């Protein structure tokens, strides 16, 4: 045995066949593969269109729901503002009834007397300007109170010996409230 190393025979080169110059180049794709790719592109395009329509529909639905919710919240805010004015009016009615029970006369009930009896609110003979300001008008037989809600509605209460009647309007004075005749304040909208 010989310790020599040999690389062996030289590699043989493969000879490529020569194509004639007038022959068309061979396509690397198989004929069936082109049809599959086209189908895939068409289905992808349809998928994108469907996705866009779904997103548009969802956004349109959510915008409508948002507007509906906003409109509902606006009416709830107005109702809450009216409730605040009603609470002020109800507290003032109780104060008027308390003063009437003490003095036996409605003619003694004035903004000053109400302020001493219930100092939480402001009382005036002029118009009410907010839910914490009460317009007061009194006669020997009755008292009218008016409270302006922040929604813009003025709530009236007419307190007499026979009971209390209610109303609402735009002129917010105790004098106008003396004509209130409804059995309750209007339900907040």
Describe it for me?
With 189 residues, the chain is α+β, with helices and mostly antiparallel strands. Helices cover 44% and strands 16% of the residues. It has three helices and five strands. The chain has a five-stranded mixed β-sheet with strand order 1-2-3-4-5. Strand 4 and strand 5 (163-169) form a beta hairpin. The radius of gyration is 44 Å and the shape is rod-shaped. The mean pLDDT is 83.
Residue-averaged pLDDT: 83
E-strand count: 5
Shape designation: rod-shaped
Largest sheet: 5 strands, mixed
- The unreliable regions are none
The fraction of residues in strands falls at 15-25%
Count of discrete alpha- or pi-helical segments spanning 4 or more residues: 3
Class inferred from helices and paired strands: alpha+beta
* Helix fraction by DSSP (H/I, runs of at least 4): 40-55%
| Strand line-up of the largest beta sheet | 1-2-3-4-5
Question: Strands, helices and their partners?
Answer:
Blueprint: H1 31-103, H2 111-117, E1 122-124, E2 133-138, E3 142-148, E4 154-160, E5 163-169, H3 174-177
Parallel strand pairs: 1-2
Antiparallel strand pairs: 2-3, 3-4, 4-5
Considering the chains and any ligands shown, give keywords for the structure.
five-stranded mixed sheet, alpha+beta, 189 residues
Short structural summary:
With 189 residues, the chain is of the alpha+beta class. The protein contains three helices and five strands.
């Amino acid at each position: 045995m010989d310790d020599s190393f040999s690389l062996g025979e030289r590699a043989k080169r493969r000879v490529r066949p020569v194509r004639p110059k007038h022959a068309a180049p061979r396509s690397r794709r198989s004929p069936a593969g082109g049809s599959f790719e086209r189908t895939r592109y068409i289905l992808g395009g349809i998928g994108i269109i469907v996705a866009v329509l779904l997103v548009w529909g969802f956004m349109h639905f959510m915008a409508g729901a948002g507007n509906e919710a906003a409109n509902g919240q606006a009416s709830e805010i107005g109702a809450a503002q009216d409730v605040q004015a009603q609470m002020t009016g109800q507290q003032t009615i109780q104060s008027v009834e308390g003063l009437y029970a003490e003095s036996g006369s409605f003619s003694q009930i004035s903004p000053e007397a109400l302020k001493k009896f219930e100092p939480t609110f402001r009382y005036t003979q002029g118009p009410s300007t907010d839910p914490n300001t009460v317009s007061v008008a009194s006669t020997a037989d009755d008292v009218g109170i008016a409270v302006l809600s922040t929604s813009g509605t003025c709530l009236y209460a007419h307190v007499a010996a026979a009971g209390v009647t209610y109303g609402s309007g735009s002129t917010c004075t105790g004098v106008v409230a003396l004509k209130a005749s409804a059995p309750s304040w209007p339900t907040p909208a």
